[in-house]
Structures are given as C-alpha cells and as structure tokens.
C-alpha cells in the first residue's frame, strides 16, 4: 500500500469538552438542552463527531439526526457496521425521550431492538435517523426509530425502553 493510499484513508476527529454539555444537561429541560445543541450553542457529544452524525431538529417527543455513511464505518464485508446503525438509532430514540424530560431528570437505555432492512453504503448519501416517543411515564419510556434515505426508503428500524431517573444536580 502506498503512502498516498494511507493518506486518503485517514480520519481525524475533533470534539469539544464533553463536560460542557453534561453540565448544561443538568441545568436545562431535555428539550431546551437538545435545541441548544441543534442551534449550535452547545457542542454536540463526541460520539456524534466520531460517527459523523448531526442533530437536525428536536421537538417534544421527536428528534432527527442526519448521517452520512462513510467507509470508515465499514464492517469486514464492506458495508456500514450494524453497531454504527444501532448507535445512531439508540441516540435518536434516547434523545426523543430526553426531549420530554424536565430539568433534573435523566434517562438511560434499558433495552434496544434493531431490525436491519437494507445494507447501508456511502452511495446512499445522507440518511435521516428519526426517533419518536411511543409512551412516556414517570419511570419508563418507550420509543421507536427509523433510518431513512431522502426518498423515505427504510434501511433500519428499532424500538427501545428507557428508564427515567433523578439526575445528579450540582
């Protein structure tokens, strides 16, 4: 392999201090926090930089990310790794739950089920990952997610159960 081939296949990741967002998450409602990120006033989490997805919008109970598949996401057989797709769906569904939380509450994923419908490749272009709350209670929430192309073709879908709890304030 030539030096030129190596240079073309390198990836440099830069992110902001993740404690900035973590502190803000404790001081804002979930929707306020997500909107601060979508509007660029708070940094996106390092995982978004690493996997190359962007927050597009956040409303009560729904979020949308964009994702540009890249060969750095490939598994050994040359398509986007299922773990990347699972992480993207988990993030969208979790953030949809987060969008409904008042200040002082947090969540964590308890269960995740993903169905892979089509192979994801860079030639598919920018994909949208949508998360939507199905049910939100005081201690548990469920949500669903979809990974779609610009024409609305489905590549993967998922469901999650999240636990809601008191966040550590201060």
From TrEMBL:
Pfam family, any one: 4HBT
Gene3D superfamilies per the UniProt record, alphabetical: Hotdog Thioesterase (3.10.129.10)
Keyword Phosphoprotein appears in the UniProt entry: no
Residues annotated as transmembrane: none
GO molecular function, one term: 1,4-dihydroxy-2-naphthoyl-CoA thioesterase activity
This protein's UniProt keywords: Hydrolase
Span of domain Thioesterase: 78-154
InterPro entries, A to Z: HotDog_dom_sf (IPR029069), PAAI_dom (IPR003736), Thioestr_dom (IPR006683)
Cellular compartments per GO CC: cytosol
NCBIfam families (alphabetical): unchar_dom_1
Name assigned to this protein: Aromatic compound degradation protein PaaI
Species assigned in the record: Chromobacterium alticapitis
Classification of source organism: Bacteria, Pseudomonadati, Pseudomonadota, Betaproteobacteria, Neisseriales
